[in-house]
Automatic annotation (TrEMBL):
GO MF assignments: ligand-gated monoatomic ion channel activity
Name of the featured protein: Amino acid ABC transporter
Lineage: Bacteria, Bacillati, Bacillota, Bacilli, Bacillales
Any single GO CC term annotated in Swiss-Prot or TrEMBL for this entry: cell envelope
Domain Ionotropic glutamate receptor C-terminal: 32-255
């Protein structure tokens, strides 16, 4: 889903130089796993009122809970802007980042990656009245397209000829821009696009097909944390073998659609 601006990554690399030791040891010592998310991306991470209480839920949260459970520690969620996550990770404010993150080469210089746990497919949201008008990437040629700032869809948009990217910090703001005719389409992950389209009758999921930006989402850890990476990979492998990840994405999508 998301990439970080070059300057943000450079800062994350520089501050990370001062951090030492495998984050696994720190997590096990304090018995708490502090996880950073940007909770504006249903169904992966988003706010939902449950029994009158605001909670952060979603696919990534379910996965983080399983990692914490396998480690035998308490899970703490810290919600912040996506572009701030890696910097917070490398200054020890976070132990782990799970927020629809793609393993880009620049990002690999700043953090350690888990194995991929989810392959993102791009979804294109359009106004319902324009669904038959915008069926292919070529139909959107030269149009203003909404993209989340810091997302890998900044690269995917190049598949639309002469597209004009409109970068905003939150997906909810992008959807408002679409509804108010400030952009002609919004590109996000397909489950996210489906969730927004289902909840808003004035929106539709376009038939336009765009290729994935990467080989899948990964979890980020502070550089030099092989034990923590190994622990997370064991949880991911277990959940894949049990079919739990498919259950998580289905449940999270349903929760997002019920908002």
């Amino acid at each position: 889903m998301k990439i970080v601006a070059v300057c943000s990554l450079l800062m994350a690399i520089l501050v990370g130089c001062g951090a030492k030791g495998d984050s696994y040891d720190n997590i096990m010592s304090k018995k708490t796993l502090v996880v950073g998310v940007s909770a504006d991306y249903p169904p992966f991470e988003f706010h939902k009122t449950i029994n009158g209480k605001d909670e952060i839920v979603g696919f990534d949260i379910d996965l983080a809970n399983e990692i914490a459970k396998d480690l035998g520690v308490e899970l703490k969620i810290d919600d912040m802007k996506f572009e701030s996550l890696i910097g917070a990770l490398n200054t020890d404010k976070l132990d782990m980042v799970i927020s629809g993150m793609d393993p880009t080469p620049d990002r690999a210089k700043a953090v350690d990656f888990s194995d991929p746990y989810y392959l993102a497919e791009a979804g294109v949201i359009v106004r319902a009245a324009d669904k038959d008008k915008y069926k292919t990437p070529e139909d959107l040629k030269g149009m203003k397209i909404g993209i989340q700032k810091g997302s890998t869809f900044e690269n995917v948009i190049s598949q639309i000829p002469e597209a004009q990217p409109e970068l905003l910090a939150k997906v909810s703001d992008l959807v408002l821009a679409l509804e108010s005719n400030r952009v002609e389409a919004v590109i996000v992950e397909k489950p996210v696009a489906k969730a927004y389209a289902t909840n808003r009758p004035e929106l539709e999921l376009s038939d336009a097909v765009l290729q994935p930006a990467s080989d899948g989402y990964v979890i980020g850890f502070r550089k030099g944390s092989p034990k923590m990476v190994e622990a997370a990979n064991k949880t991911i492998a277990r959940l894949k073998s049990e079919g739990k990840l498919d259950e998580f994405i289905t449940k999270a999508t349903q929760m997002a659609e019920e908002q």
